[in-house]
Each structure stands twice: as C-alpha cells, then as structure tokens.
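hey can u run this one w/ nicotinamide-adenine-dinucleotide bound, need the structure tokens asap thx
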Amino acid sequence: MTEIKNAACVGGGVIGGAWVARFALAGIDVKIFDPHPEAERIIGEVMANAERAYAMLTMAPLPPKGKLTFCKSIEETLKDADWIQESVPERLELKRGVITQIDAAARPDALIGSSTSGLLPSDLQAEMKHPGRMFVAHPYNPVYLLPLVELVGGKKTSKATIERAMQGVEQIGMKGVVIAKEIEAFVGDRLLEALWREALWLIQDDICDTETLDNVMRYSFGMRWAQMGLFETYRIAGGEAGMRHFLAQFGPCLKWPWTKFTDVVDLDDALVEKIGAQSDAQAAGRSIRELERIRDENLVGIMHALKSGNGGEGWGAGKLLADFEAKLWANAKKPEADLGDVKPLHILDTKVSAAWVDYNGHMTEHRYLQVFGDTSDGLLRLIGVDLEYVRDGHSYYTVETHIRNLGEAKLGDALYSTCQLLSSDEKRLHLFSTIYNAATKEAVATAEQMMLHVDSKAGKAVAAPAKVLDKLKAITEAHAGLPTPEGAGRFVGQKR
Ligand SMILES: NC(=O)c1ccc[n+]([C@@H]2O[C@H](COP(=O)([O-])OP(=O)(O)OC[C@H]3O[C@@H](n4cnc5c(N)ncnc54)[C@H](O)[C@@H]3O)[C@@H](O)[C@H]2O)c1
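ok here u go:
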C-alpha cells in the first residue's frame, strides 16, 4: 500500500497550484518549485479558494492542513517526496527536460506523475534513467474539487507504478481511471476537443453566440453527463429496448453527417475577436476569481446532490465523496465527552459559507436545521453512534424539532454549537442545542429535539445497547444539575 506523506509540485500555475491545494487539504506536506516571481501569491489565492470550497463540501474532519514550502530548485523540492507532480507548460522539450531533471534527483521509489493534457508518456520518459515510475496523471480543473485523474502509462511504465498511483489518488479523494493504451490527449481531452471543434464552427457560422451555446449545454445534456456520462444516458434514451435500440435508431444518422468534424475552423483574428467579445459580454464584468468561486459553489452543490442520489447510497462523484468522508471519520480521533467541568457540551465549530446565505445576506432557514443536525450527529458520535454503528443497522432518528431564531448569522460569521441533554431513556434522547456567534457569544438560534433509537431495517424504535446507554447516562446525569435552558419546552405561538 502506497501512502503519500510528502508531495512535490514542479510548476504551480492553474493546474500545479490546484494540485498543491488537493495534497495540502488531504494533510500532505507539499514542496513547490515554480520560477514565476508571483508563484507564492498565486498559489496562496488558489489555496484560499480551495479551503473555502472544502468548508462547503464536507463536515467530515479533514486532517491538519499540510505544510507548503516554496523551494529555489527542483532538487530541493524533491527531497523526501513520495509523489512528484509535474505541471509545467505543455511543450514537449520543456516537459521532457524537467522530467529528466526530476528523474536524476528523485528518490528511486518516488512516483512521478505528469499533468500533461495530451503528450505521450513514452515521449516524456524517453531520456529517464528510471522510467518505470513515470506516468501521466491528467487531472481536471479545479483539481482540488473535480476528482478524476486519467492514469496513463508509457512503454516503460511498470504495472506496479500504475497500481501505486491508483492507491495514491484514492488517498487524496480522487478517482483514478486507467487508460488502457497511450494516445495523444487520452480520453477526456479527445472528447472535449471534438465538442470544441464543432462549437467553434457554430460560432463562426453565426448559428448561435457563445452564451446560447453554453445555455444549450448547461440546461440540458450537461446535467445528464455530470451524473451518468454518455453511454448510460443513451441506454435510457433507447427506451425499454435500451442501448441496442438506440444504436439502431440513431446510428445511421452518423453517416449523413450533421457535424463538420473533419474540418478545422480557421481561428483567424476576426474569429478570435468575435469569440472574445461574446465571451466578455457573457461574463458581464465578473472577474476570473469571481467566476471560479461561482463554479466551485456549483460543483459543491452538484456533488452534494450526487451524494444523496441513488436512494441515499450516493452516485458517481457523490458516492466517491461519501466514501472519502467515511474514511476521514474513521481516521479521526474517537471523541470523548468532556464532563470534567459540567456545562452544555461544545460540539461544533463552523462558518457561514457563501452557499448558506439567502437574498438578505443572512444564513438561510434550512441551514439552521443543518447545523443542528450536525450538532446532534456530533453528540451521537460522543455516545458511540458513528457511521459504522449506522452501517450495522441501528441509529437515532429525529422525531421532533423546535427551532427558535434569535439573531442573525451573516456570511463569514464564525459559529459554534452546544448541546445539553434534557433527559434520556432506553429509546429516547431529548436534547437542547444552541448555535452561538463565536465573536459576540450571543445565541443565534436554539433547537429542542426528540430522537428515537431505531432498528433501521425493521423501521421501528428499539432499546439502545448498553455500550451506548452507559455513555448517554453519564452525560444525562451530569447535565441533570444544569439549569433548564431558557426556551426549553416552548411551543409555537406561546407568549414570551
Ligand atoms: N489548465 C487546464 O485546464 C489543464 C487541465 C489539465 C492539465 N493541464 C496541463 O497542466 C500543465 C500546466 O498547465 P497550466 O494550465 O497550469 O499552465 P500555467 O501556465 O498556468 O502554469 C505553468 C506553470 O509552470 C511554471 N513553469 C514554467 N517553467 C517551469 C520550470 N522549468 N519549472 C517549474 N515551473 C515552471 C510557470 O511559471 C507557471 O506557473 C500543462 O501540461 C497542461 O496541459 C492543464
């Protein structure tokens, strides 16, 4: 089993910088070499966007962030590195030179991945002394959010290297796919190039403008692709007769053909200006960083949706996220309730992220329930009801919630939540949680909840086992001495 403890990134532009964020947020120390005078500032900005995105993406306990070190030479960068990722500009001679330099200085067992979008790994490894450990690891932008990496071996890449690379990308929450044979541009960029080629003709011939073309994609098949790809989507499009029927029905059209596939549009100055102007109008003054943040929020939302797809089991990129989160929880230190100085338990620290605010700029209603849900999940983990426990067939279900909104939480506000157990018995757990503004210590909202211990398969309430009840009892008894919180037992419409 390959474990990446230290990573090195050679080249820290759009892609290299986002690889840095992907490694660092998975708890891996990263050394960086990029001669660009502003590399540190640029990577700092990418890290900030990535951290913002992860705060929205997951409540699972991320490992402590890896340390970033900016180095003055390639050699210095590679010391200790288990995984070296090359992301310098896409020019064969430059890349081959850099990879040969990496090869001479890297530990013999270090993995060397190239981010190239289309060059053949056999060409890149041609001058290496130890080419067996070199491969293409082609990611998609933003690398810190989009999970795919195409792994492509060259003629001299060993099978063991690709296997180790698969384990490495899994460790950082990515989905490795092994491309069986090396070809220029691999699989993803071949498909993208085909689509782009056609799109440029449609603009050139004034069939539509860039905004219309993007709308055609994002309001329709873009959504289908994100969750099922091409072939499974077409299987469904074939109706009950499935894929064979689809091929019989639409296959012959390919010979007409509708598209201009084999011709390449002439990207002369006039066309570049036309596309540039349409694209400027489409961006409506939004900066690239602003567009990146919108993109990240949307990608997080899509992954969340996919996480609850397939009857809650998760699907595609969402299932991958759920599996990654399960590992993060399993690796986290098992929490213990601190009953030393008896007070309501401090459960959660969080921040109001951009995706949580409504048109008033305040945390929107359902996010309060989310934070209270995360708070009761935190309490459950303290009594041993974690993901493993739930997988084994038992859980606590919330049967009643009463939320009071007392203040306003605004974008970026730091919040924390506490939880007090009002009572518990074999099946029931009655709790009172409060969300506070961390800066002012003012209560922003409270929730009183009743939860029932259930046998999930049977779908009925059953007594919790002794190992859970013992922990629950210890907290309930400690909390029995606390004053009843203000607002406990209130009902909707009750006079203050
Ligand atoms: N941009 C994308 O969407 C994308 C997606 C997947 C893969 N890629 C691939 O990733 C690689 C990098 O592309 P990018 O978009 O990040 O380009 P970029 O121009 O944003 O970044 C390249 C970086 O490499 C640095 N650099 C140049 N020479 C160097 C050297 N000798 N040693 C170390 N650093 C050096 C530059 O200063 C720059 O910061 C390319 O191979 C590209 O095909 C790009």
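The radius of gyration is 27 Å. anyway lmk if its weird
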